Amino acid sequence: MTSPDVTVIVAVYNTMPYLTECLNSLVGQSIGHERLQVVAVDDGSTDDSGKELDRFAQRYPDVFTVVHQPNSGGPAAPSNRALDLATGRFVYFIGSDDHLGEEALERMVACADANGSDVVVGKMVGTNGRYVHQKLYTGNRDVTLDDAELPFTLANTKLFRRELVEKHGLRFPEDMPVGSDQPFTIEACVRARKISVISDYTCYYAVKRGDASNITYRADHLARLRCVERIMQHTAALIPAGPRRDAVFKRHFAWELTKLLQRDFPTLDADTRRQVCEGVGALVDAYFTDALRDATGVKRRVRFGLARSGAVEELTRAIAEETEHGAPPFVLDGDRAFASYPGFRDAAVGLDDRYYEVRETVAGRLSTGTRLEKADWEQHGTELSCVVRLRVGITGDTSSAVIALAQGAMPQSADKPGARKLPKDAPRPKRSGTLTADAAEDGGTLLTARIPLAPGRAKKGVRLYVEVAGSRYEIPVRTEGRPMPLARRWGSTDPHRVAANTNTKGRLVITTAPLREPKSGVGARLRRTLSRSKRK
To answer: With 457 labelled, which of 100, 114, 451, 535 sits at a CA distance of 20 to 30 A?
Structure first.
């Protein structure tokens, strides 16, 4: 009997009813049964998964090999057992709650044969709310671990040349409850002659179970920490320090380690927080190079730095305060901006300013950190001004930061959903009226703007311009449910009405209009005629 082209390996533990769709997608593959072997290992299931495997083995005896074993605690042991029984030229791993597109195996095997690929990554999408990174799938192409996208797709749900697997003795570490596929996948990608991507056909459908019973979702902080330690140590032994290793570790700092320092961190007991902090800090100390630090956003960078410094209480407070109140104000110091998280310039913490320095675009933070405190009218003689009081999430050298608070035409600028970064060659906005700044007691800066109003018919949105870390931003002023001042009439010889309103995007808009029209002119006569007809 000739060897099949591909062996599909399925590690199974309590995945009914999803398992049925998975197995149906395998027997329905266009590659045909004569080119297919399925090795399914039941890892001590307590539901009907074992019976379902036996049912398929009885119906398709030339395709299925089923093994039953006591529960091992994770997918590594059953995957290794299946690898020992595989006979295909290629092996492919599928989660027992996921399923394949009908042509998936045929397309991936053809790609590997045509290109001499040792690894083929077929396009993968999430279903039922499952997140799957998509940036890798920009076209059918060859990639390496140096590419920024591949390290974010390190699951073993790929086609591997079995000759490569056996030559290097690739197996899954059985003492890792989560992430045991990453050492296997990373080493296979390091050893592979060529890695190809199929983007023009959806090969794999990753399903998020309704009961969230997947082991990945059940593992606690310390278990996940130990596993990512193992993954990073294994990777460091394969790839020398430098840009290529950084390209892989960017994923682990951005994903696995970041997830350990999220909003649930302050709810952990003190000893667990200390252990997580120590573990993350050790990995930061070992692998968080200057290049990785400078390419990481300030929010995560500060958390990693506080962990490295052993500042557990400051780290806990940074996460809790941001969860409750949002990002802290930016501290402006000349042409540099810093995020004032706990520990900033605290000698006891001893963390370098570079961890707190803002280098990325901060439009979203400026938008959420700017709010209207109060708006009113102020009249001096015949001049009327709108007095706007704002709280802005910046402190420090605000004299160089605040460019202007002005009115602009609607809806092109003021009606935008949030702050936006302006091009470097954008003309410097003209200041409308006067603008004064005072420190706010709860952090940030209070701005008071007096905007003179000119007669005429106009509808203009109020917006703020600021400079942070060398970039200029336009921020529409959000009212956030604040009461608007009553409409005001001003002028005796040329009376006008002015009103402050909230538009559909929640932004402050000032509308002016004359109270009486000129007595002559075709336009005036037409408006009077229309007005009289409406009253009738």
So the answer is: 535
